[in-house]
Specification:
Blueprint lengths: L1 E7 L4 H9 L4 E12 L2 E9 L1 H13 L2 H4 L1 E6 L6 H9 L10 H11 L4 H20 L2 H10 L3 H13 L2 H31 L5 H5 L13 H19 L5 H6 L4 H14 L2 H32 L34
Antiparallel strand pairs: 1-3, 1-4, 2-3
Helix pairs in contact: 5-8, 6-7, 6-9, 6-13, 8-9, 8-14, 9-13, 11-14, 13-14
């Protein structure tokens, strides 16, 4: 279940209540006239099944509540209510399959912001991967994959393309490209410093590396793995099962490929550098392609709950309140 907290301009509270009551899968409607102070208006609370959430949010935005009021959405971890159970039963489909497009856009927008922290994580992950590449240590490679924050901008590009938001796409691509460019430059300097103190050497990079040699040798399997990882990553975001992201992080070789390119660049090993860059581009392209196709499939296959019909006998709409509830503003509290 989701919990919605809204501040509504008083003249539109009746319209909002109508929308909530006519949306299948809602419960626990509360109206507090005049409770809002910033912005001024009525406070409206309700719970809604996740599978009905996107439809309800779209209707509320259509009323302009996001422009001159406010809408806050929270996940409910535990709800002990027969009415909530009934609302979830009424809403068609499963909550895990529902996509909250507004939440997805907001989450990817935040994750794709180019910040100092984002660049720091990119550099740290790439430097850890550089150690793994030179030492041929798979454990370090896996650790670097888990630290890398690059999936946020990748998801941002996928979401922006499907929703038609060019600014988010450009923002996400900028964060992705600049982040990798900064990480590669910093890791090149790092690898030269490690060489100066005797920890790295060109011989270590050129020696047989059975655990990490694949990083600069892309093949068809690289594309297959990146496509599968892209599907898994997007599904983990849209279904709110973020635990799967750890698996996605260690399924592709984006950060390790960038690290191998940086170390090879420092030693002038152009063949390894270009092979690593090709591997990086294959993985990034595969993830984005799979992510876009997955979101398009979810958009086409998922149908929100119908409005109006489906309420059981004796149920007066989504709010569960008394029939004919109107005149919410008859006696607002004094300001």
């Amino acid at each position: 279940m989701l919990h919605l907290r809204m501040i509504i301009p008083s003249e539109r509270t009746d319209a909002v209540v109508d929308v909530v009551e006519s949306t299948v899968g809602t419960a626990h409607l509360v109206v507090l006239p005049g409770a809002g102070r910033d912005p001024r208006g009525d406070l409206v609370l309700c719970d809604v099944a996740r599978e009905a959430g996107d439809e309800l949010l779209r209707e509320l935005k259509g009323l302009g509540i996001d422009e001159d009021g406010s809408i806050a959405v929270e996940n409910i971890d535990l709800s002990l209510s027969k009415r909530a159970d009934a609302a979830e039963e009424e809403a068609p489909g499963e909550g895990a399959d529902a996509v909250l497009w507004e939440h997805l856009t907001e989450a990817t927008h935040e994750e794709s912001t180019l910040t100092i922290t984002y660049c720091a994580f990119m550099m740290l992950a790439t430097m850890i991967a550089a150690c793994g590449v030179v030492l041929d240590n798979a454990v370090l490679i896996v650790g670097a994959m888990a630290v890398g924050p690059e999936f946020g901008p990748l998801a941002g590009v996928c979401t922006a393309v499907v929703r038609g938001v060019p600014r988010l796409a450009l923002r996400s691509l900028g964060a992705l490209l600049i982040g990798f460019a900064v990480a590669i430059a910093a890791t090149t300097v790092f690898s030269l410093g490690m060489d100066a103190i005797g920890q790295f050497s060109e011989e270590m990079l050129d020696s047989p590396r059975p655990n990490t040699g694949f990083i600069w040798k892309p093949d068809p399997l690289s594309l297959v793995v990146s496509l599968l990882a892209g599907v898994a990553g997007v599904l983990s975001l849209t279904s709110a099962k973020s635990g799967a992201l750890v698996g996605v992080a260690i399924s592709v070789t984006t950060v390790p490929a960038a690290a191998n390119a940086a170390v090879a660049l420092g030693y002038g090993e152009l063949a390894q550098m270009w092979g690593s860059i090709e591997q990086l581009l294959v993985n990034l392209g595969g993830i984005m392609l799979a992510g876009i196709l997955t979101l398009l499939a979810q958009k086409l296959l998922w149908r929100g709950p119908p409005r109006g019909g489906g309420a059981p006998p004796g149920h007066s709409g989504g709010g569960g309140g008394a029939p004919g509830r109107r005149n919410h503003h008859a006696a607002p509290p004094p300001p």
